[in-house]
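Predict fold of Carbohydrate ABC transporter permease; 307 aa.
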Amino acid sequence: MRSVALKTARRAGRRRSRRFTRRDLAVLVVLLGIPVLLDIVIIWGPTLASIGLSFTSWDGIGDIHWVGGENYRNLVDNYPPFWPAVRHNLLWLAFLGLIATPFGLLLAVLIDRGVRFSRFYQSTLYMPVVLSLAVVGFMAQLILGTDQGVVNTLLDNHENPIDWLGDSDLNIWMMMLAASWRHTGYVMILYLAGLKSVDPTLKEAAAIDGANARQTFFRVVFPTLRPVNVIVGVITVIESLRAFDIVYAVNKGRNGLELLSVLITDNVIGEASRIGFGSAIAVVLLAVSLGFIVTFLVQELRGARDR
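Predicted 3D structure, encoded as tokens:
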């Protein structure tokens, strides 16, 4: 018995002391090293470079000159498009977060209840998600254009057409509606997947306790969707702050459609070539994005820990 125990201990020690072979290390390098390297080169490298360039003056060709916080002071005090762009970005966030996202949740709940032709509705509502925002912008031009737009044609406004895309009081709302058409389908699919994973016994227990459909959803079902809420919240913030394609496709982000992402493009690759100044705007957008996302994640993680 003692010899058997010794042999078993030796085998266990050999297993614990086993080292990775060259093949194992090669697999680890391919599966982990390459994605990490790409993440550093494509994401963190440009991010850190933008932060550094935001304190410089550089046109992309000549020498780089250190200017400290001058770019940020000019951005706040002497750059008129900045504050309208900030307001528009916050308006996009409020619109997508308070209107488009709840509407996507409503559609998911209705489809999850098994309405007739639910598969058809699900496919139709998800279809816009496969389109880029630039394509959605071109479609908005066809629908809302003043010359041969579908809406003005239906309203029979040939003599005095409504300038849906040129009027600065209207165009941003039209663009947010067009972007919500795409965003709603994405949110619907995420919540629909979450609703399918809810334990049916929870609903049955709530019904036995006398809860109606509304009480069951808000007090039983919705709290179990916390992981989905985190994902949807982060996606909504990202979608609202990076909205660039759709407004640039319509009128290059001008005349009431100014966004921070558009200002970055105009300064970095525009005729001015103020890369340092454009990098300062990019850092502001990064800080705003991280502020919303980190705050949201911290609140959700605290709620999950307190449960």
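The chain is about 75% helix and 0% strand.
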